[in-house]
Write a structure and sequence with these properties.
The protein is α/β, with parallel strands linked by helices. The chain is built from twelve helices and eight strands. The strands form two sheets. The chain has a six-stranded parallel sheet with strand order 2-3-4-5-6-7. A two-stranded parallel ribbon has the order 1-8. The protein is globular and about 55 Å long. The model has no long low-confidence stretch (mean pLDDT 96).
Length: 305
Amino acid sequence: MPDRSMTGVYPILSIPFDVNGKIVWDDFERLIEWTVGHGVHGVGVAMASEIYKLTESERDEVTRFVVKHVRGRAKVVINTGAEGTDVAIHYSKSAQGLGADALMIRPPTYVPSGGDENVEYFRRIAEAVNIPIFLQDQSTAQVPPALAVRCARTHPNLCYVKVESPPTSPRVAESVKLRGDSGLIIFGGAGGAFFIEELRRGAVGTMPGNTLPDMFVQVWNLWQSGKQDAAEREFHKHQALIRTLGQGLGLANWVYKDVLVERGVIKASSAYARHPSLKPDDDQRREVVQLLEELGLRATAGARR
């Protein structure tokens, strides 16, 4: 049976790129260590990592690198979705062979499929691997609650869903209501913007970006210890920053890395996003710095790299 024990905070890693789009491996190692060091329960390589901009050899290299440097201290989830079922199976078997603990897969969108085709897509992938799969429900690639439950009943590996189609809170609630004995396990995503609301409705984890692993772990620990009011207060202190980070992939890829620079995790020379990607203007950067300073999260000048 697949591992159904995964809960908690699973940040999606940003991949540091230089001005020429090359992966900066020393900063990537530092970022992994910093993220895992905050006590996260897992990490992911997915859309916010810009995985869709990696070559096939880079995908394998990144997966191998993350597994190596996490060293079993947290689960590793790799996004292996593709526009063709056979390609997704290829990516999925490769990620499993390189040590991934779980996969995350969104439906094809280039030629949108209906419900039956999507169930078949997920089923075939699930039959090809021996590790659990997160069904990724995004606004541009939706896995509605009823479809997620149907998939979960189709194969035991299809046992998780990451709910990101807005509004996420009622979608989590509907998933809980419909899942019955399917065994479907529900995570939130979309930057963790509605983490508290999702927990209240039955989600057992979140997959935000990896700019605030310390805060998300603290909120999770408070919630799990029965201190829900304290968890909400801590979470809501960061709402302005979370809102700024949640402006969509493209701009967010830059803003995530700007935050990581300001927090002293990666170098400014490693804080590029691969093209195409909407670069923030100077006002946006100043706003991010101001928010970090107000929260006491900006590293000192000497600590910034």
